[in-house]
From TrEMBL:
SUPFAM superfamilies in UniProt: Protein kinase-like (PK-like)
Stated family: Belongs to the protein kinase superfamily. CAMK Ser/Thr protein kinase family.
Keyword 4Fe-4S assigned: no
Domain of life: Eukaryota
Full protein name: Protein kinase domain-containing protein
Keyword ATP-binding: yes
Annotated Gene3D superfamilies: Transferase(Phosphotransferase) domain 1 (1.10.510.10)
Ranges where the Protein kinase domain occurs: 1-64
GO molecular function, one term: protein serine/threonine kinase activity
Keywords, in A-Z order: ATP-binding, Kinase, Nucleotide-binding, Serine/threonine-protein kinase, Transferase
Organism: Cirrhinus mrigala
Length: 64
């Protein structure tokens, strides 16, 4: 959810977000961890510019 009405969401920024999310998932899978509750609410921006993405809420995560 974007709370800043002046935030401009572009195709380029979307590609950057998806890259970070997919790299995070790839890293978890390399460590044999599955999130099991990946949804928009569990993906957050870590800075005001919205350039750093973090996957949160590993409460249902499982190690294979």
């Amino acid at each position: 959810r974007i709370v800043d009405d002046s935030f401009e969401h572009t195709e380029v920024s979307s590609v950057g977000y998806m890259r970070q999310i997919l790299e995070g998932i790839q890293y978890m899978h390399q460590k044999n961890i599955v999130h099991l509750d990946l949804k928009p609410e569990n993906i957050v921006c870590m800075d005001r510019t919205g350039t750093r993405i973090k996957i949160i809420d590993f409460g249902l995560a499982s190690k294979l």
